[in-house]
Design a protein that fits this description.
Layout lengths: L3 E4 L2 E2 L5 H12 L4 E9 L4 E8 L1 H18 L15 E10 L3 H19 L3 E5 L10 H5 L6 H6 L19 E5 L4 E7 L4 H11 L4 E2 L20 E2 L6 E8 L4 E8 L7 H14 L4 E7 L4 H14 L8 H12 L9 H4 L1 H4 L13 H8 L8 H24 L8 H36 L6 H42 L5 H26 L5 H34 L1
Parallel strand pairs: 5-7, 6-7
Antiparallel strand pairs: 1-4, 1-5, 2-4, 2-5, 3-4, 8-12, 8-13, 9-10, 11-12
Helix pairs in contact: 1-2, 2-3, 6-7, 8-9, 13-14, 13-15, 13-16, 14-15, 15-16, 15-17, 16-17
């Protein structure tokens, strides 16, 4: 499987799109790299760029972009609201898939060495790529900013990790590192006061604020035995924050970097900022995400706010994201488009067509066409998805039933299980067709001589095995839905008991239909031990499905008669 890393360089230009385009064109020029997001900010005069790919191409794209930035950005003329010390201010590499942090560090340091040697730019390695503890923190590496670089470079303690110790007036310096996924997140306040925004930032950030003698505002800063300031920690871990004023919006913001959203999720930072702002007489009007965000961050946020409303979290992904966007006020300053901000959505192949994206009419028409796929396997998976959806619907209706307010969480848990089953079956709708196409592709291979014939034979057997495994998986997943459906028939909203009954019929059809596909594909597989194992399991699932379906229909019919 491919190793994937993300690169999120920040360039010190956010106003001139011709300059930004020249930089991003360098990234696009590297094969195997996908540019995901370009997020310029006029007030900060800074652009956050996000791209992803295998490590080698990503490192090459990062180098080309940094080289171009060093040629066309003049730091002597740069002014903006965000701290900075170089044309490419910071360039982190982030492990995404099939690569660990230690491996990512190697690539970050390779990039840093090349930038230092070939571009003559002082480089500081930070976060996991740092060579010493004090350089892990980006703020420490960037302390003094561009204007303080000439003096900093003369200090032996701050000798660059790579590159010259002489001041590069045009390009400044750069911090290159390896880190976990960082979410850049700004909280909008109904004030224009940077001081008030900073007060909230100091309240919540992990570093907190300096401890002062006597007066907490003007008193002398308390220092420890080593002469370092003593801080009063803020309320949130893995959180960095400052306050600033955004000219283009006419408001002050708390600008936050969440360095580990497993420790402090986006919704936790939002709620805490709301609380601290209210304590200081301000109101949070919304927030904005800078760059991209993992899908999980918004799913977690949406479910968090649904639970606060005593509402079921067992709703569709689209609905959960909509709740997250509205609750966090992500559309306060400009429209929030999930397809442009969620990294998993951007990684989707836009050219790939999916059966489940068709309308009901379109899916029926496609099935009824001359093409052999989609066929019975895909239809079985889809019927199963409809059955799970009906069970989930009863759970959601039950969670909202008048007089059952104290049971919303119980039914929400069932609805959440149902959504998971439904989503897996929807995935299998397309995967069954993919399995069929694999067989067709294998049979299309040339027979040729002995070696080619062996390749073709092995490909056919491998594809046939997969074409057995997919409908067997449909059987397993559809069978799992019966627990939900039966429970909803027993304890769910009695007005929807027939919906549970129809759900049971769908689940039964899904299991039996998928088993037909298992059996016909198994007839072409040479691995008879595997075939016997699969058929034994299939018979057991089918038998148990019919038994539970009978039990559900008895419950449904008894409630109809009563």
């Amino acid at each position: 499987m491919k190793q994937l890393i993300e690169c999120v360089p920040n360039f010190s230009e956010g106003r001139d799109m011709s300059i930004i385009d020249q930089i991003t064109d360098q990234i696009k020029s590297v094969e195997g790299v996908r540019l995901l997001d370009v997020d310029p900010g006029a007030a900060t005069n800074r652009t956050v760029v996000t791209f992803v790919g295998e490590p080698g191409p990503v490192v090459e794209a990062a180098f080309r972009a940094m080289r171009k930035a060093s040629e066309i950005i003049d730091m002597r003329k740069h002014h903006g609201a965000h701290p900075r010390f170089g044309a490419t201010d910071v360039c982190p590499l982030v492990p995404i898939a099939n690569i660990n942090m230690d491996e990512t560090v190697v690539y970050a340091r390779q990039l840093a060495e090349r930038v230092g040697n070939e571009l003559a730019i002082p480089v500081y390695c930070y976060e996991s790529a740092a060579f010493e503890e004090k350089r892990k923190n980006l703020a420490s590496c960037r302390a003094g900013e561009y204007e303080g670089l000439p003096k900093k470079l003369q200090n032996p303690e701050w000798k660059p990790d790579f590159g010259p110790t002489t001041f590069n007036a045009n390009s400044g310096a750069v911090a290159i590192g390896a880190r976990d996924f960082l979410v850049a997140y700004n909280i909008n306040l109904n004030t224009t006061s940077v001081r008030r925004a900073n007060a909230v930032a100091f309240d919540i950030r992990e570093k907190g604020r300096p401890l002062r003698e006597g007066n907490s505002v003007t008193g002398k800063i308390v220092k420890d035995d080593q002469g370092m300031p003593v801080n009063i920690p803020g309320s949130l871990k893995a959180c960095k924050a400052i306050g600033w004023f955004i000219e283009e919006y006419g408001i002050a913001q708390v600008s936050i970097n969440l360095t580990n959203i497993n420790i402090t999720p986006v919704h936790t930072a939002f709620d805490e900022a709301c609380k601290k702002a209210a304590e200081r007489g301000m109101r949070v009007s919304g927030s904005e995400l800078v760059g991209l965000v993992p899908l999980k961050a918004l799913i977690d946020a949406g479910k968090y706010f649904l639970r606060k409303q005593n509402r079921s979290v067992g709703v569709s992904e689209d609905e959960i994201i909509k709740i997250a966007v509205k609750s966090l006020g992500l559309d306060d300053l400009k429209p929030f488009v999930p397809e442009e901000k969620i990294i998993e959505y951007l990684l989707r192949d836009k050219n790939e067509k999916h059966l489940i994206d068709l309308t009901c009419k379109g899916f029926a028409n496609e099935t009824a066409s001359e093409s052999p796929a989609p066929g019975g396997g895909s239809i079985s998976a889809y019927i199963g998805a409809l059955g799970a959806s009906l069970g989930t619907m009863v759970a959601n209706l039950s969670s909202h039933k008048t007089g059952w307010d104290d049971r919303w969480d119980e039914f929400s848990a069932w609805a959440e299980k149902g959504q998971t089953i439904k989503d897996e079956l929807l995935y299998l709708v397309d995967e069954d067709t993919h399995a069929f196409n694999k067989i067709m592709d294998a049979f299309a291979l040339p027979k040729g001589k002995e070696e080619a014939l062996l390749i073709r034979t092995n490909a056919i057997q491998e594809a046939t095995r997969y074409a057995i495994e997919i409908p067997l998986r449909v059987m397993r997943v559809a069978f799992r839905s019966l627990e939900l459906i039966k429970t909803m028939a027993e304890i769910g909203n009695p007005n929807s008991v027939t919906d549970a009954g129809v759900g049971a019929l769908c689940a039964r059809s899904a299991v039996m239909g998928a088993f037909l596909n298992v059996k016909i594909n198994a007839s072409g597989l040479k691995d008879k031990a595997f075939v016997e194992q699969v058929l034994t399991e299939g018979v057991e699932i089918e038998t148990n499905t019919k038994m539970i379906e009978d039990e559900i229909l008895l419950i449904v019919n008894s409630k109809i008669k009563s």
